[in-house]
Amino acid sequence: MHKHTHKTITFCLITLITTCLLANVTFAIHPDRWEHTTEADFESGVAENVLITNLGDIKLAADTKLMDAIPQLGSVIFDLHESKNGTIYIASGPQSAIIRKTDDQIDVLIELPTEQVFSLGELPQGNLLLGISGTPSRLAYLDHQDKIQTLIELPEVRYIWDMIVRNDSVLLATGTEGQLLKVSLNAQNPDGQKPATKKVEDKPQPQTQPTQSPIKSNPIQHERLDNPQNITDNVTMTQVDIEPEFATAKEPEPQSTEQIVDDPTTDDQEQTDKPIAEDSPVQEAPTLPKKITDIPPVIITYQPTVTVLYDASQTNLLCLGQDKLQRIYVGTDTDGLIYRFTEKSDGSVTAFVLYDASEPEIGAILVMSDGTTYAGTADANQARPGRLSKASNKQVGRPNVTQSKPKTPIKPPHQTPT
Predict the structure, then answer these.
(1) Does residue 110 surpass a pLDDT of 80?
(2) Fewest Cβ atoms closer than 10 Å to its Cβ: which of 11, 124, 327, 358?
(3) Nearest-CA neighbor of 153 among 123, 178, 181?
């Protein structure tokens, strides 16, 4: 009886162990397979050195470098402009401000509590140009004291989205009436002449007697003084900021007459020790020209006028471009169009629709000199918060392309239909 019970218990244990082993094999974890095919599939992950397109593709991202962090009041950068001297100006928002970055220093120049600046430029005279959107909108510039001076008010314009600065005018892409405007600056000097036509004459040089090896002035000096662009580019409204390079006189090489010219840079003791050959003319030391800061500041006055080049049916003209033929390229919202305008001799323009995007907005364009145009399209609905979360439940991404069977061609009727 005891032996039978022992055998029964042993058999039950063996059966239980076998059952557990079979259960482990049956309920073992099998690998699953899933595919990420949409942008929303990657939304919960962290992208590092890659970007995810709206079609669900992963691509290597361009290398970027953090220059600086702008002040806390600016969480959005609307526009950037680098001046000719390397200073970077930033139009930030939503707390509208103009920020200046010089080398490693960042300063908040101006805050505009009730206005916004979406576009920056630079006048031919070197002043920062601001497209200020408000009620009313206005075109303004910064003077040498970093104060805003209004060029012209635009009461019919709600937004100034972009600008192109020419030598004597400024092109504006505006909204919400969708107008392309041309603001003629009509800049004048105090003498009533245009700044570009005013010439800067050389300072008279002292007359010296000719020698066998005459002293030659530095040609850089004449290049800077003869070129009015080099002067006006650095002249602000009431202040001149640059100083010219002075011509340096080189000591002539000793000739067979053993003539030595006095060096004006040495002290009196050294000059008395230098021998002067007999019967040789003594050359006067050249005098350096006065510094350009001694020249009175040039005050530029403007009498701007506005011309409507084109009144589009779209609500906003968002971006501008220009090629070497001075043709104007404009990106719009509503219909996602790129216009190309050609100016006529009478001041009017002819319009041509260069591109019609499937997206409703042309947010940015880059026009090369030969007319090749790159466009950045956008859809405001896709930028709304929570878009990716809602899209995670939808199977959107790269469409599946199936090869359809060719259809059998239909024979035409014997008689031509009426």
Answers:
(1) yes
(2) 358
(3) 181
Q: Phi, psi (5° rounding) for residue 80?
A: -130, 145
- Per-position DSSP letters for 67-78, written without gaps between them: --PPPTTEEEEE
User: Which secondary-structure segment (H or E) carries 12?
Assistant: helix 2-26
Phi/psi region, residue 19 (left: phi>0; alpha: psi -120 to 50; beta: rest), is alpha
The sign of the dihedral angle between the CA atoms of 104, 122, 316, 327 is negative
Q: For residue 314, what is the DSSP state?
A: S
Contact 135, 153 (CB under 8 A): no
Per-residue pLDDT tens over the stretch 14-29: 777 777 766 665 555 6
Q: What tokens does 339 get?
A: 């216009």
pLDDT for res 261: 43
CA distance 65 to 259: 60
Nearest to 180 by CA among 375, 355, 350: 350
Helices (H), ranges, 317-397? 387-391
Place of tokens 């920020």: 99
Q: What is the DSSP letter of 113?
A: T
Peptide bond into 399 cis (omega under 30): no
Give the β-pairing of 317-322 and 97-102. Answer: unpaired
Query: By percentage, how much of the chain surpasses pLDDT 90?
Result: 40
Q: Is 348 helix (H, G, I), strand (E, B) or coil?
A: coil
Q: For residue 138, name the pLDDT band (cuts at 50, 70, 90).
A: very high
- Preceding peptide of 360 cis, ω within 30°: no
Q: What is the rounded CA–CA span in Å between residue 37 and residue 54?
A: 10
Given strand 128-133, what is the order of strands in its sheet? 116-122, 128-133, 137-142, 148-154
- Reading the block at residue 286, the tokens are 């050249």
- Longest Cα pair distance anywhere in the chain, in angstroms? 152
Tokens of 332: 């719009």
> Position 371: which residue type?
G
Six token digits for residue 127: 């002043």
Q: Report strand pairing: 105-111 vs 116-122.
A: unpaired
Q: Which residues pair with residue 337 across a beta bridge?
A: 356
Could you tell me if 38 and 56 are in contact, meaning their C-beta atoms sit under 8 angstroms apart?
A: yes
Identify the pLDDT of residue 247: 39
- 310 contacts: CB under 8 Å, gap ≥ 6: 179, 180, 330, 339, 341, 349, 351
